[in-house]
Amino acid sequence: MNRPSSVPTPATTGHDAPGGFWRTYVFSTDHKTIGKQYLGLGLFWAIAGGALAYAMRWQLAWPDTAVPGWGEIGPETYNVLVTMHGTIMVFFVAMPILLGAFGNFLIPLMIGARDMAFPRLNMLSVWTFATASLALAASFFVPGGAAAAGWTGYPPLSARPEYTGVNWGLNLWLLAHALEFAAFLMGGVNYLTTALALRAPGMTLLRLPLVVWQQLAAATLFLLSVGPLIAGAVMLLLDRTIGTGFYLPEVGGDPLLWQHLFWFFGHPEVYVILLPAMGVVMEILPVFSRKPIFGYRWILGATGVAGALSFVVWAHHMFVSGMDPRLAMPFSLTTILISVPFAYIVFAMMATLWRGSIRLEVPMLWALGFLATFVVGGLTGIFNGSAPADIYLSDTYFVVAHFHYTLFSAVVFGGFAGLSYWFPKMFGRLLDGPLARLHFWLTLVFFNVTFFPLHYIGLAGMMRRIANPLQYDFLAPHQWLNQVATVGAMALMATQLLCVANVLWSALAGRRAPANPWEANTLEWTVPSPPPPSNWGPTLPTVYRAPYEYSHPDAGEDWLPQSAAPAVAGARRTTP
Amino acid sequence: MTVRAGEYPVTAGHDVPGLAPGKLGMWWFLASEIMVFGGLSGSYVVFRLGGVGWSAEAAHLQVTIGIVNTLVLLTSSLTVVQAYAAAEAGARHAARLFLGLTILGGLLFLGFKAAEYAAEVRAGFTPGSGIFWSFYYTMTGLHALHVVAGVAVNAVLFASARLCTPHRLELAGLYWHFVDIVWIFLFPLLYLTGGQRP
Known about the structure:
The complex is a heterodimer.
Chain A: H1 20-26, H2 31-61, H3 75-111, H4 119-138, H5 161-164, H6 168-197, H7 210-241, H8 255-289, H9 296-309, H10 328-353, H11 362-385, H12 387-393, H13 397-427, H14 433-459, H15 479-509
Helix pairs in contact in A: 2-3, 2-4, 2-15, 3-6, 3-7, 3-8, 3-13, 4-6, 6-7, 7-8, 7-9, 8-11, 8-13, 9-10, 10-11, 11-13, 11-14, 13-14, 14-15
Chain B: H1 21-50, H2 54-58, H3 63-88, H4 92-122, H5 131-159, H6 166-191
C-alpha cells in the first residue's frame, strides 16, 4: 500500500472553522466553499438557461402555438430568449462551473496549498459574480424586458434603445457582463498567482496535473483577451446613455468595431471554456485507463500554441460582416492551423486509452462521451473556419449545431465528468452508480437527437435567430426535423432530473466516500473526503513525481501517488 | 498580514523562492488593465488612420494643460518611488511625506483635467460632438477614473500607519506607475497629433 507522506491524522484536522455559520458557508474565504458556491450559482443558471431553450425549441417546432407552462411567444420575446440563452449559458453556466467551481476547488488541493493566494479577493470574486447574477436576473423584470440584441449584442441593434425596444434590460445586461468579467479577472489573478507561488515542496511546474495547467491557460487567455471587450462595452454603454457615436456611422463611428472587439475576446473565450473541460478529461483518462497520459509535455506545448493562435483567429466570425475581404484568407489560415494543436490533444487522449486497463466508471463514461461529441464539433469547425464554405454556412443552424457540439461537450460532458469524478471529494459521498450511468446514456442519446438534425436544417438554409421557420417555403419540408430536435431537447432536459435526483439522494444518503475512491495519484486524493478547512495537517505534502504514474513497472500497486515517498527498494525517482 | 483559511497560515511553508504573491498578482492585474487601454487606444488608432478631419478636431485641445498634467503625473511617479525607498530605509515620516506629495500630484492632475473638461464643454465639445470627442472623453475619462482609484489607494495607505508597509507601498507604486504610463500614451495620441495649430 502506498502511504502518502503526510496524511493528516484526525487530531490535526479540526472541523471547528472559526466564525460560525455565516463565515463558514456564506462569506467564506475557503477555496472549497467558494468553488461550491460557484457550482451552485452555475447550476441555478443552467436551469434558467435550459428553460429558455425549452421555450425556444417549442416555438421552432410548433410556431406560434402556446408553449406549455409558458404561453404564447411573439418574435420580440423570441429575441429575448435567444439573447439570454446564449449569455446565460456561456457566461453564467460554463464559466462558473468549469472555471469557478473546478478551478477554485482543485487548484490549491492539487498543488498542495492551503488556500488561494488571496482568499479574501476570492470571496470578493464569488460575491461579485453573485451580484452579476442578480443584475442579470433583474433584467428580466424591468420595463421593456431583458436584452434582445443577440448574445453577441451587435450594434447598431444594441446601440440605440429604440431599435429593440429594450432600454434598461440591455443596460443591465452590460452591467452584468462588467461584473462577471471583474469576478473572473479576480479569479484569474488568484489562480495564476496561487499556482505559481504556492506550490508544495517538490511540486515543480512539470509535475502539475494537466487540469491545473489548463485552468492556468484559460485564466491567461481570459486575462489577456477580455480587456478590449471591457473597453468596447464601456463604449457601447456610452453610446446608449450619453450620446457618443463609436458604433454609429452617422457620427463617424463603425458598427464593425464592436464585432472586432467582441470576437477578439470571443474566440479566446471559447478556449477559456474548452481548456478546463479538456483538463478535466485529461485528468480522468489516465486514472481509468491505468496508464500515464500520452505526451504530457507536448500537450502543454499544444495548449500554448492553441492559446497564442486563438488571438489571431477572431475575424472568422466575421466573413460575411462586410469587413475587408482581403482579411478572409489570413484568418481562414490561422483558423485551420489552430485545429492542429487541438487535433494533437485529442490524439493524445486517444493514445492514452490505447491498450490501457479501461475501467468504465461513470467519470470515464462522461470523458469518453466528451471525446466522441467534441470530435464532431471540431470537424464541423473546419468547415466554418474556411471562408468559402462559411460564407454559405454563416448564420445558419449548421453553426448552431457546430458550437453546441463543441460547447455542450465541454460544459455538459466535461462538467459532468468532473462533477462525478470529484463529487466524492467535494461532498464526502459516492454518487449512485446505476442512476448516473442511465443519466449518461440518455444524455448522450438525446443530445445527438437534439443537435445532429440541426446540421442538416442549417445546410438546407435555416437561419439562426428566426422565430418561425414556417414563414419560409423552402424550410417547410424540413420542419419535421425541427420537431425531432425539439422532442430530443425536451427529453434531454427531462433526463437531467435523473442527475438532480442522484445528486440530492447521494449527498444525503449515499455511501461515505473514502479518501481515494478511484485509486488516483494526485494530491487531492491524499486528504479526507471532504477535505478539512486548511487541507493539510501541520506540514504540507512533499511531491516526488509526475501526476500520472499508473502501472509503473517498479511499483507494487498500479498507482503511485505524487506524494508517496520513494521508500520501496528499487523504486526509481521519476522526474519528468 | 497572513490570511488564515483554517488553522494554518495560507502562505507559510511553500517552496517557490522569489515569487511574492502580492507582486505577482499585481502584475497579472496590470496585464489585464493594459489590454483594456490597449483595446481602446487600438480602436482609436485604427479609426484615426482610416478617417479624415481628425486633426481639426484635435487642434481644439489645450496642449499647455496637457503638458503641465504630464509633468505633474511624472513627478508624482517619482515621489511614489521615493516614498517606497524611504519606507524600505525605515524612514516612516519621509515615506508619509512623499506619499502625501504623490496624492497631491494625483489631485492636481484631476483638478487640471476637470478645468479642461469644463472649458471644452463650454466651448460646445461634448462626448456627442463627433467620433474624436467620443474617443477623447472616453479615453481620458477612463484614465481619470484610474487616477481616482490610485489616489484612493494611496490615501488609505497615507491614513493608516498600520497598512503603510514597504510591501504595500511597492504595490501601490506599481499601480501608480501604470496610471502614469497610460497617460504617456494618451497624451501624444490625443494632444500632439493635432497638426497645424490655429
